[in-house]
Design brief:
By secondary structure, the chain is α+β, with helices and mostly antiparallel strands. Strands 1, 2, 3, 4, 5, 6, 7, 8, 9, 10, 11, 12, 13 and 14 form a 14-stranded mixed β-sheet that branches. Helix 2 crosses helix 3 and helix 6 crosses helix 7. The two termini are 35 Å apart. The mean pLDDT is 85.
Protein backbone atom coordinates (compact mmCIF):
# COMPACT_ATOMS: atom_id res chain seq x y z
CA UNK A 1 0.00 0.00 0.00
CA UNK A 2 1.32 3.45 -0.92
CA UNK A 3 2.23 5.66 2.01
CA UNK A 4 -0.16 8.44 2.93
CA UNK A 5 0.60 11.87 1.54
CA UNK A 6 1.17 14.58 4.13
CA UNK A 7 0.89 18.37 4.09
CA UNK A 8 2.22 20.79 6.71
CA UNK A 9 0.70 24.26 7.04
CA UNK A 10 2.80 26.99 8.67
CA UNK A 11 0.53 29.88 9.65
CA UNK A 12 1.46 33.25 11.08
CA UNK A 13 -1.57 34.35 13.12
CA UNK A 14 -0.68 38.06 13.25
CA UNK A 15 0.71 38.76 9.75
CA UNK A 16 -1.16 41.50 7.95
CA UNK A 17 -3.63 41.91 10.79
CA UNK A 18 -5.87 39.39 9.01
CA UNK A 19 -8.05 36.57 10.31
CA UNK A 20 -6.67 33.35 8.80
CA UNK A 21 -9.65 31.12 9.72
CA UNK A 22 -11.24 31.08 6.25
CA UNK A 23 -8.03 30.33 4.38
CA UNK A 24 -7.01 27.62 6.89
CA UNK A 25 -10.41 25.95 6.65
CA UNK A 26 -10.32 26.03 2.84
CA UNK A 27 -6.75 24.68 2.73
CA UNK A 28 -7.56 21.82 5.10
CA UNK A 29 -10.66 20.92 3.08
CA UNK A 30 -8.67 20.91 -0.18
CA UNK A 31 -5.92 18.80 1.40
CA UNK A 32 -8.45 16.22 2.57
CA UNK A 33 -10.08 16.15 -0.89
CA UNK A 34 -6.66 15.39 -2.38
CA UNK A 35 -5.93 12.65 0.16
CA UNK A 36 -3.38 14.43 2.34
CA UNK A 37 -2.96 13.99 6.07
CA UNK A 38 -3.06 17.45 7.66
CA UNK A 39 -0.76 19.06 10.23
CA UNK A 40 -0.89 22.73 11.22
CA UNK A 41 1.82 24.77 12.96
CA UNK A 42 1.15 28.28 14.28
CA UNK A 43 4.17 30.53 14.64
CA UNK A 44 4.80 32.45 17.85
CA UNK A 45 8.07 34.22 17.05
CA UNK A 46 10.10 32.34 19.65
CA UNK A 47 11.61 29.13 18.29
CA UNK A 48 9.82 28.73 14.98
CA UNK A 49 12.70 27.64 12.75
CA UNK A 50 13.69 24.78 15.06
CA UNK A 51 10.05 23.76 15.51
CA UNK A 52 9.46 23.66 11.74
CA UNK A 53 12.67 21.67 11.24
CA UNK A 54 11.51 19.17 13.87
CA UNK A 55 8.06 18.83 12.33
CA UNK A 56 9.53 18.30 8.87
CA UNK A 57 11.87 15.60 10.14
CA UNK A 58 8.96 13.86 11.88
CA UNK A 59 6.33 14.18 9.14
CA UNK A 60 8.38 14.21 5.90
CA UNK A 61 5.54 16.21 4.27
CA UNK A 62 5.00 16.03 0.53
CA UNK A 63 4.17 19.72 0.51
CA UNK A 64 4.52 22.64 2.91
CA UNK A 65 2.00 25.50 2.81
CA UNK A 66 2.64 28.94 4.29
CA UNK A 67 -0.21 31.26 5.31
CA UNK A 68 1.48 34.58 6.01
CA UNK A 69 3.57 37.28 4.40
CA UNK A 70 7.06 37.39 2.92
CA UNK A 71 8.71 37.18 6.34
CA UNK A 72 6.90 33.95 7.18
CA UNK A 73 7.78 32.47 3.79
CA UNK A 74 11.43 33.38 4.24
CA UNK A 75 11.53 31.90 7.74
CA UNK A 76 9.99 28.65 6.51
CA UNK A 77 12.46 28.55 3.62
CA UNK A 78 15.36 28.93 6.05
CA UNK A 79 14.01 26.08 8.17
CA UNK A 80 13.66 23.80 5.13
CA UNK A 81 16.67 24.90 3.08
CA UNK A 82 18.34 21.47 3.30
CA UNK A 83 15.21 19.58 2.19
CA UNK A 84 13.71 18.94 -1.23
CA UNK A 85 10.13 20.16 -0.83
CA UNK A 86 7.82 22.54 -2.70
CA UNK A 87 6.39 25.42 -0.68
CA UNK A 88 2.87 26.57 -1.50
CA UNK A 89 2.08 30.21 -0.70
CA UNK A 90 -1.27 31.26 0.76
CA UNK A 91 -0.79 35.06 0.76
CA UNK A 92 -1.94 36.49 4.09
CA UNK A 93 0.52 39.24 4.94
CA UNK A 94 0.39 43.02 4.77
CA UNK A 95 1.73 43.29 1.23
CA UNK A 96 2.60 39.76 -0.05
CA UNK A 97 5.36 40.94 -2.35
CA UNK A 98 6.52 37.47 -3.45
CA UNK A 99 3.00 36.43 -4.47
CA UNK A 100 2.58 39.70 -6.39
CA UNK A 101 5.86 39.13 -8.21
CA UNK A 102 4.92 35.56 -9.12
CA UNK A 103 1.68 36.81 -10.67
CA UNK A 104 -0.74 35.22 -8.23
CA UNK A 105 -4.44 35.84 -8.91
CA UNK A 106 -6.67 36.84 -6.00
CA UNK A 107 -9.00 34.45 -4.23
CA UNK A 108 -8.56 31.54 -1.84
CA UNK A 109 -9.49 28.84 -4.36
CA UNK A 110 -6.95 30.26 -6.85
CA UNK A 111 -4.27 30.21 -4.16
CA UNK A 112 -5.04 26.57 -3.39
CA UNK A 113 -4.97 25.57 -7.06
CA UNK A 114 -1.42 26.95 -7.25
CA UNK A 115 -0.28 25.69 -3.84
CA UNK A 116 -1.25 22.08 -4.63
CA UNK A 117 -0.37 22.30 -8.33
CA UNK A 118 2.51 20.70 -10.19
CA UNK A 119 4.22 23.84 -11.49
CA UNK A 120 6.98 25.38 -9.39
CA UNK A 121 10.01 27.65 -9.69
CA UNK A 122 13.44 27.14 -8.15
CA UNK A 123 14.17 30.63 -6.94
CA UNK A 124 17.34 32.28 -5.71
CA UNK A 125 17.94 33.97 -2.39
CA UNK A 126 20.28 36.84 -1.55
CA UNK A 127 22.61 36.73 1.45
CA UNK A 128 23.02 40.23 2.95
CA UNK A 129 25.18 40.55 6.06
CA UNK A 130 24.08 37.05 7.05
CA UNK A 131 20.37 37.76 6.40
CA UNK A 132 18.63 35.74 3.68
CA UNK A 133 16.37 37.71 1.35
CA UNK A 134 13.80 36.20 -1.01
CA UNK A 135 12.33 39.35 -2.40
CA UNK A 136 13.34 42.99 -1.83
CA UNK A 137 15.63 44.54 0.77
CA UNK A 138 16.73 48.14 1.03
CA UNK A 139 18.50 50.85 2.98
CA UNK A 140 17.12 54.31 3.55
CA UNK A 141 13.62 55.67 3.14
CA UNK A 142 11.58 52.46 2.82
CA UNK A 143 13.41 50.73 5.68
CA UNK A 144 12.61 53.72 7.89
CA UNK A 145 8.96 53.39 6.87
CA UNK A 146 9.00 49.73 7.90
CA UNK A 147 10.59 50.60 11.23
CA UNK A 148 7.77 53.06 11.88
CA UNK A 149 5.17 50.51 10.74
CA UNK A 150 6.48 47.87 13.15
CA UNK A 151 6.05 50.31 16.03
CA UNK A 152 2.49 51.25 15.05
CA UNK A 153 -0.70 49.57 16.26
CA UNK A 154 -2.49 49.70 12.90
CA UNK A 155 -1.62 46.74 10.67
CA UNK A 156 -2.26 45.86 7.03
CA UNK A 157 -2.27 48.22 4.04
CA UNK A 158 -3.89 51.01 6.04
CA UNK A 159 -1.00 50.88 8.50
CA UNK A 160 1.51 51.06 5.65
CA UNK A 161 -0.35 53.98 4.08
CA UNK A 162 -0.39 55.92 7.35
CA UNK A 163 3.30 55.33 7.98
CA UNK A 164 4.14 56.31 4.40
CA UNK A 165 2.53 59.68 5.02
CA UNK A 166 4.26 60.05 8.39
CA UNK A 167 7.67 59.03 7.02
CA UNK A 168 7.48 61.31 3.99
CA UNK A 169 6.26 64.23 6.12
CA UNK A 170 9.60 64.19 7.89
CA UNK A 171 12.42 65.12 5.55
CA UNK A 172 14.00 61.76 4.51
CA UNK A 173 17.68 61.32 5.33
CA UNK A 174 20.06 61.85 2.40
CA UNK A 175 23.21 59.72 2.46
CA UNK A 176 26.13 58.85 0.20
CA UNK A 177 26.30 55.25 -1.01
CA UNK A 178 29.16 53.46 -2.76
CA UNK A 179 28.43 50.26 -4.68
CA UNK A 180 31.38 48.02 -5.58
CA UNK A 181 30.86 45.25 -8.17
CA UNK A 182 33.76 43.42 -9.83
CA UNK A 183 36.17 46.14 -8.75
CA UNK A 184 34.04 48.91 -10.29
CA UNK A 185 32.69 51.56 -7.92
CA UNK A 186 29.54 53.62 -8.36
CA UNK A 187 28.86 56.48 -5.96
CA UNK A 188 25.54 58.23 -5.48
CA UNK A 189 23.85 60.65 -3.11
CA UNK A 190 20.46 59.15 -2.36
CA UNK A 191 17.58 58.46 -0.01
CA UNK A 192 17.05 54.82 -1.04
CA UNK A 193 19.10 51.86 -2.32
CA UNK A 194 17.21 48.64 -3.12
CA UNK A 195 18.73 45.14 -3.28
CA UNK A 196 16.30 43.20 -5.46
CA UNK A 197 15.80 39.54 -6.23
CA UNK A 198 12.47 40.32 -7.91
CA UNK A 199 10.62 43.17 -9.57
CA UNK A 200 7.84 44.53 -7.37
CA UNK A 201 7.02 45.61 -3.87
CA UNK A 202 3.89 44.03 -2.42
CA UNK A 203 1.94 47.15 -3.32
CA UNK A 204 2.49 46.25 -6.97
CA UNK A 205 4.98 49.08 -7.59
CA UNK A 206 7.79 47.95 -9.91
CA UNK A 207 11.25 49.02 -8.78
CA UNK A 208 13.33 46.50 -10.72
CA UNK A 209 11.85 45.86 -14.18
CA UNK A 210 14.82 43.70 -15.25
CA UNK A 211 14.67 41.37 -12.24
CA UNK A 212 14.17 37.60 -12.28
CA UNK A 213 14.10 35.36 -9.22
CA UNK A 214 15.74 32.36 -10.91
CA UNK A 215 18.60 33.84 -12.98
CA UNK A 216 21.45 33.56 -10.45
CA UNK A 217 21.73 37.35 -10.25
CA UNK A 218 20.39 40.24 -8.18
CA UNK A 219 20.02 43.94 -8.90
CA UNK A 220 21.02 47.01 -6.94
CA UNK A 221 18.65 49.88 -7.71
CA UNK A 222 20.06 53.34 -7.05
CA UNK A 223 17.65 56.26 -6.81
CA UNK A 224 19.56 59.44 -7.57
CA UNK A 225 16.39 61.51 -7.22
CA UNK A 226 13.29 60.78 -5.17
CA UNK A 227 11.26 63.97 -5.48
CA UNK A 228 7.48 63.81 -5.85
CA UNK A 229 7.66 63.73 -9.65
CA UNK A 230 10.01 60.71 -9.65
CA UNK A 231 7.92 58.93 -7.00
CA UNK A 232 4.83 59.58 -9.11
CA UNK A 233 6.51 58.06 -12.19
CA UNK A 234 7.50 54.94 -10.24
CA UNK A 235 4.03 54.46 -8.75
CA UNK A 236 2.52 54.89 -12.23
CA UNK A 237 4.77 52.12 -13.52
CA UNK A 238 7.11 54.37 -15.47
CA UNK A 239 10.55 53.79 -14.01
CA UNK A 240 12.70 56.71 -15.24
CA UNK A 241 15.62 54.56 -16.39
CA UNK A 242 16.51 56.78 -19.35
CA UNK A 243 16.80 60.05 -17.43
CA UNK A 244 19.60 59.20 -15.02
CA UNK A 245 17.28 59.47 -12.01
CA UNK A 246 17.47 55.70 -11.46
CA UNK A 247 20.36 53.32 -12.15
CA UNK A 248 20.24 49.51 -11.98
CA UNK A 249 23.37 47.38 -11.46
CA UNK A 250 23.17 43.59 -11.96
CA UNK A 251 25.56 41.43 -9.95
CA UNK A 252 26.14 38.10 -8.24
CA UNK A 253 28.27 39.69 -5.50
CA UNK A 254 28.60 43.27 -4.26
CA UNK A 255 29.56 45.57 -1.41
CA UNK A 256 27.52 48.64 -0.51
CA UNK A 257 28.88 51.20 1.95
CA UNK A 258 27.27 54.39 3.26
CA UNK A 259 28.82 57.50 4.76
CA UNK A 260 26.45 57.37 7.76
CA UNK A 261 24.48 54.56 9.42
CA UNK A 262 21.13 54.15 7.63
CA UNK A 263 18.00 52.08 8.23
CA UNK A 264 18.03 48.56 6.72
CA UNK A 265 15.20 46.09 6.06
CA UNK A 266 14.99 42.57 4.60
CA UNK A 267 11.73 41.33 3.05
CA UNK A 268 9.65 43.67 5.18
CA UNK A 269 11.54 43.07 8.44
CA UNK A 270 13.44 45.97 10.00
CA UNK A 271 17.06 44.98 10.81
CA UNK A 272 18.55 48.12 12.36
CA UNK A 273 21.04 50.67 11.03
CA UNK A 274 24.05 49.73 8.92
CA UNK A 275 26.91 51.39 7.06
CA UNK A 276 28.12 48.35 5.07
CA UNK A 277 26.34 45.54 3.20
CA UNK A 278 28.14 42.42 1.97
CA UNK A 279 25.88 40.84 -0.64
CA UNK A 280 25.97 37.58 -2.62
CA UNK A 281 23.50 35.46 -4.55
CA UNK A 282 22.50 31.97 -3.39
CA UNK A 283 21.21 30.24 -6.53
CA UNK A 284 18.16 27.94 -6.54
CA UNK A 285 17.56 27.85 -2.80
CA UNK A 286 13.82 27.26 -2.76
CA UNK A 287 11.09 25.51 -4.72
CA UNK A 288 7.91 27.61 -4.74
CA UNK A 289 4.59 26.57 -6.28
CA UNK A 290 3.77 29.11 -8.99
CA UNK A 291 1.00 29.82 -11.52
CA UNK A 292 1.25 27.90 -14.78
CA UNK A 293 3.10 29.95 -17.42
Amino acid sequence: MASKKTVLLVVNPISGGKDKAAIIKAAQSRAEELGYDWTEYETDGKNDIDEIKSLYKKLKPNRVLVAGGDGTIKMTAEALQENDVVIGILPAGSANGLAVDLGFPTGIEDYLDIAFGDHFLEIDMILINGHRSLHLSDVGLNAELIKNYEKSTIRGKLGYALQTVNTLTDEPVVFKACVEVNGQKTEVETKLVVIANSQKYGTGVTVNPVGSMDDGKFEIVLFRNLDLITVGKIIAGNMPLDTGEVEIITASQAIVTTDIPVHFQVDGEYCGEISRLDIEILPRQLKVAAPNP
